[in-house]
Amino acid sequence: MNFRRLVKLAAVAVGLAAAALSTFVAIGLPGGKTGGAVQVVNAPAEMVARGKYLAEAADCAACHSAPAGAPFAGGLAMQSGFGTIYATNITPDPDNGIGRWSADDFWRALHDGIRRDGQPLYPAMPYTSYRGMVRADADAIYAYVMQLRPMEVANHRTQLDFPYDIRLGMIGWNLLFLTDSVPAASTGSSAAWQRGRYLANVLGHCGECHTPRGMLGQMELSEPLTGFALGRVAAPDITPAGLASRGWTAESLRTYLGRGIAGPDSAFSDMHQVIVLSTRNLTAEDNDALVTFLLGDKPPPAAPLPPADPAVLEAAASGAGRGDYVALCAGCHGLEGNGVPNTVVALRNNSTLRLADPRNLLVAMLDGIGPENFPHRASLQAMPGFANKLSDQQAAGLANYLRVIWGGQKPDVTAAAVRALR
Amino acid sequence: MSLPTRKLPTRKLTVTINGRRRGPLDVPEGMMMIDVLHEMLDLTGSRLGCGIGICHACVVIWDRDDQTSEEVQTCITGADFFNGKRIRTIEGIAQTNDRGEVTALSPVQQAFLDKFSFQCGYCTPGFVNAATVLIERLRRTPVPRAEVEATVTAALDGHICRCTGYVRYYQAVRDVILATPGLTRDGA
After folding, report:
1. Is the distance from CB of B173 to CB of B128 less than 8 angstroms?
2. In A, residues 226-285, which contact B (CB 8 Å cutoff)?
3. Contact predicate A378/A260, CB 8 Å
4. pTM for this predicted structure
5. What are the chain B neighbours of A332 within 8 Å (beta carbons)?
6. CATH code for B103-188?
7. B8-92 domain in CATH 3.10.20.30?
8. Same domain for A211 and A158
9. In angstroms, what CA-CA distances link A294 with A185, A210, B22?
10. Residues A103-135 pLDDT 10s
């Protein structure tokens, strides 16, 4: 981060702190509680079952479980531009988890982003999306998590840089950025669309990854779901136009969200987690509603792979990229890019190749993709990374070859773009 | 009557294998290196296992120009990748005389025999090459003795043995490393 940007951020932070202070004086610190009785929740079985379903739809487990850790016991480290935030233990352990939290406390965390002790949460916890949740759903999720096995797993301390480590600054942040309703990226009015909006914008909190973020980490709500790179792998544009431009249809999206693999497309990185832990569990009606919302009541026609300019194709077919494809990729993906059914994804018409931004393609080429299990016992073995076999120039040439012949994109990847991702 | 055939385009391949320059060969485009080794060069020691780069039975050693060495799966790597490169296959690991007869096994090979590391032996060429690459790496950058076990596990982790002989493979490689001066250093 350059110095000028730092000064700018510091100025904004001071402003936020001032705003926070005035709010603080005006309303007083929200009544914080520590200690107190351990809550005993005896919810009816059907409420617990509904809470489980909703917790899956809200994908609580993705963040509130560390790799190889106990479910919901927290510990996952989330890197942000502001420091590292650790997801907390939300099992009903009285001292490490939320065992002393009432349903009201739980609601306040989801709806207002305020912890039981009165301290604001950071928006790594997507209360910014969950704010749209209806109280009955929050209560059902509470009923579900409160009957999980309490895990005696201590929380990690969040490590943010100054001035973001001042939690009260979040009060000002919330004044600026917390809204009751996240805007829709599609148009519709049907019952399925309405339900899908709730599933996508509230429970599924899709926008937390897929909506661009501004300088202070807020979602840029003027351009919902247009794609953003929060981490190394970018969350692509999932607006109706964005999806259609890469060939997605309602049918392929339903399959993808239910199974993780649809035609040439397979989920990887964080989206693989989302599907395995969350969207695969949606009922057929909810899966359909989610897709209806993503594409809108009148889905745009999926764009077929555009025929490439013959001159560009010819150049691609005789260039170095083709040679490197044959040498390093064709063994699994095939000379014609058709892959191997149930084993290796096809590259022709692959959504990642059809993205205008080459980032995810380059990341996959350099890092590889780990082995992944999918619903219905499908699995894909690991793809090796080729960072040590391809120079920047070679990787750019190979990416351009793939983009031109099977992605309908321009051969505009440069060696510098590859170097930036090393 | 003959079946209709489609003539695939070919590419020229010249590669140095076990110190000997081979080629130029006319290799059909898209042919994997394992097939070139087996079908065109009569080097049948490398094993084709999974065919998708996972089991590592097919690995050869790529000697890079910077004096480092690394494993490459020949079942998923096209012959063209190796054009102009130097590699070693399992046939080049032991010392041989002018008539091509083995005169001395490598320490890794000997240790695998001494420890009864393998049963069916199908994965052994891959394990020998992986362990050889590991020992060459440790010669350049030794590890603390306390980290040998973890280092061996990490280096051989990708190699699959369906007779599940992992323990004896790992023990053999660990013992070679601990017994060879210069591969380890004391302290943390």
Report:
1. no
2. none
3. yes
4. 0.90
5. 52-53, 76
6. 1.10.150.120
7. yes
8. no
9. 7, 12, 57
10. 999 999 999 999 999 999 999 999 999 999 999
